[in-house]
Specification:
Number of domains: 1
Structural class: mainly alpha
Number of strands: 0
Largest sheet: none
Amino acid sequence: LAGTSLIGAIIGGLAALLALFTVTDATVRGQAFTTALLPVAGLPVLTAAAALHDLPVARDLTFLAVVGAGVYARRWGPRGHSLGVFAFMTFFIA
């Protein structure tokens, strides 16, 4: 961790814990696939949160959209639930 920011290390640690606790697929193969999809859900949300940090109205509207998308993703079972929770928490901690 030498030379890295404390905030980056904390966000990375929280993302790792979220990956561990939210992926609940029934099979190991399904869990591996869902885990591989987590960056697809998390990185765009993290980028949006960082880019909109100084624009409170846009940031809050985007947050509401992420929450809505996360709830809607639950319709795809455990995988959708995991990706929705991961996207929400990534935006929330950013």
